[in-house]
Design brief:
Number of helices: 16
Largest sheet: 9 strands, mixed
Shape: elongated
Helix content: 55-70%
Strand order of the largest sheet: 4-3-5-2-6-1-7-8-9
Distance between the termini: 25 Å
Low-confidence stretches: 95-100, 155-160, 427-432
Strand content: 5-15%
Radius of gyration: 34 Å
Number of strands: 9
Mean pLDDT: 76
């Protein structure tokens, strides 16, 4: 990492001397990326699967709360620090930007107080409005920039958690899906895993609590079969957090090996941290090679003109060719912006159709279930099922939209065919709490009648039967109340009661369908608006990214033209001095390019 920073600093010196503020901004962004060396590994899974204890075992410290009930209610980030400390991030008031964004307040706390803020017991329903908590520990496993994120559990209690976790995955470098050894992977876990693979570059699975279940090997084998159907490259690590912690207390290396953690730690270091470092080296190499090409273009043009002042026809031809390239670049800029604008418009239209189509499917299934049974007695279960289906459908739409946005940036990059153009880093903000603006489904009449109501309905129906048949039998001298009229009253009362029950059922079903439709409409309205906002942000980020690239190339061509024109009017003495200066600068540029190419030979080969 130090080597990369030094090379970027040398590049900054060169572009500063060349007075290229556009290239300077690019390298400053590269330096900022290197300064943030954090590698985020998010730990996910359903409730009570051992996620928090897994992190505790990895860092050998009880930093994440563990409880018999739901423990983690707020994401907790564990990263390296010189001294143990903790802090919480709280949503504040408006930040004054005029964009409706919320400021973030940072408040230091002691590690002992952490559970009172991030656990469901200490902060039920996140009433404290916490965004996240951060813990800093002096641990060797974290020293390389590794950050472990303990996420709230997925599951039936709050289906929006899965969406919140899923939308956080694009910002993570890796994901660990934790499932205990009590049973094989569930269908929701497999579904979430398939979605995660589409948005996260590195995914691994952990079978936890192997010390509690003697048949954990059989469960691990079954899980391996499930993973082979999804992606055979996904690694699986059976571990015991309790054995790991116990081994740390006893300093027992054999017990630590039995816990299964050495393989998981090795994976985090080699595959995650190592892969991120390789990506950083490739990115730095690509940036530096591109920068040196821009610098070399103007320097070489000026040097050629100075060393061969008699070759004016060739120089003029070169100038004309450079101008032609500049004009082509302008036309090319128009084409890629057209591709971007048209692509975003199409993507918004497709996204709206995709979201509505998924919501219509959920609505059809809900209405079919309502028609098949009385929704009143099972309304709570119906609402819970509806929330799960809606959250799953919205998460599918988010994943699909993210994929299409990346695809669109690749289509735009194809217009810059003369170089390996880096794609923009699409960091879409405010991905949490997507479903929060959606109102909860209203209550429904449960259809339960009290004894008094039943008697009243029966008497109301039987009254007409007794009166009608009493009058008819009165013709033959019988009293108004007689066995015939009473029997008729009972029959008619039963019929009226049954009809009333059917009418109430139809009314409840109609009301239930109306509530479902209203909820679906609210989801489409609220989520559709947020998706549009995110796509507009993607459009702006992509546009700004490629505008900077186009500006760099255009500026380099203009610089080369200007340098060649200037050299044509340079006096002999000044020419010799300038040639010496240019050769020295070219040597420095070539040396930087050579060092950058050594970082990633494949990038260098592609750039030649």
């Amino acid at each position: 990492m130090v080597e990369l920073v030094k090379l970027v600093e040398r590049g900054i010196e060169l572009v500063s001397a060349a007075e290229r503020p556009d290239l300077l901004r690019r390298l400053e962004h590269t330096r900022e990326r290197l300064a943030d060396s954090s590698t985020r590994v998010i730990v996910v899974g359903e409730f009570k699967q051992g996620k928090s204890q897994l992190i505790n075992a990895l860092v050998n410290a009880p930093v994440c709360p563990v409880d018999v009930d739901i423990a983690t209610a707020v994401p907790t980030v564990v990263r390296h620090g010189d001294t143990p400390s903790a802090r919480i991030l709280i949503t504040g008031g408006e930040n004054g930007s005029g964009m409706g964004e919320r400021a973030i307040e940072t408040r230091p706390i002691s590690i002992d107080e952490l559970a009172a803020h991030v656990s469901e017991g200490g902060n039920p329903g996140n009433k404290g409005q916490l965004i996240a908590a951060e813990v800093f520990l002096p641990r060797e496993i974290l020293a390389g920039g590794l950050s472990l994120v303990d996420s709230p559990g997925l599951g039936r209690l709050d289906p929006a958690h899965s969406l919140t976790t899923l939308t956080a995955l694009p910002t993570a470098d890796a994901m660990l899906l934790v499932s205990d050894a009590s049973q094989e992977f569930t269908e929701p876990e497999i579904q979430f895993l398939r979605q995660a693979l589409r948005v996260c570059p590195n995914v691994a699975c952990v079978v936890s609590k192997t010390d509690l279940y003697p048949n954990w090997r059989m469960v691990a084998e079954i899980n391996r079969e499930h993973l082979d159907k999804v992606d055979p490259e996904i690694p699986l690590f059976p571990v015991s957090s309790e054995l790991r912690l116990h081994a740390a207390r006893l300093a027992d290396e054999e017990l630590n090996t039995e816990s299964g953690f050495p393989s998981l730690v090795a994976y985090l270091h080699t595959e995650i941290l190592g892969k991120v470092e390789r990506i950083q080296r490739r990115s730095v190499a690509l940036d530096l090679i591109s920068i040196t090409e821009h610098l070399r273009l103007s320097l070489q043009a000026e040097l050629s003109a100075l060393e061969d002042p008699e070759g004016m026809p060739q120089m003029i031809a070169g100038l004309e060719a450079a101008k032609s390239r500049a004009n082509d670049l302008r036309r090319q800029s128009s084409r890629w912006q057209t591709t971007l604008n048209d692509g975003v418009s199409d993507l918004i239209s497709d996204m709206e159709h995709d979201l509505r189509d998924r919501m219509r499917s959920v609505q059809r299934d809900a209405e079919q279930a309502i028609d098949e049974a009385d929704p009143g007695p099972v309304w709570d279960e119906t609402v819970e099922w509806l929330d799960q289906r809606v959250a799953a459908a919205v998460s599918d739409t988010f994943v699909w939209t993210n994929e299409r946005a990346q695809w669109l940036s690749e289509q735009v990059a194809q217009h810059f065919v003369h170089d390996e153009v880096p794609l923009p880093v699409l960091k879409v903000d405010n991905t949490d709490e997507v479903l929060d603006p959606v109102q909860e489904v209203n209550e429904l009449d449960r259809g339960r009648l009290t004894l008094l109501q039943k008697v009243f309905i029966g008497m109301r129906g039987s009254y007409g039967g007794v009166l009608m048949f009493g009058l008819l039998t009165g013709v033959i001298g019988m009293s108004l109340i007689n066995p015939i009229s009473v029997g008729a009253g009972i029959l008619i009362g039963s019929k009226v009661y049954k009809d009333e029950q059917e009418a109430r059922l139809k009314r409840r079903q109609s009301e239930a369908k109306a509530l479902v439709r209203s909820h679906i409409d609210d989801v489409v309205f609220q989520v559709g608006k947020q998706l549009k906002d995110r796509l507009r942000l993607v459009q702006r980020q992509t546009r700004d990214h490629f505008i900077d690239i186009a500006a760099e190339h255009h500026r380099s061509l203009e610089e080369s033209v200007f340098a060649a024109q200037k050299s044509a009017a340079t006096y002999k003495v000044e020419r010799e001095q300038r040639i010496t200066q240019i050769k020295a600068e070219l040597a420095r540029v070539d040396d930087l390019r050579k060092r950058a190419a050594a970082l990633e030979p494949k990038v260098a080969g592609a750039a030649q």
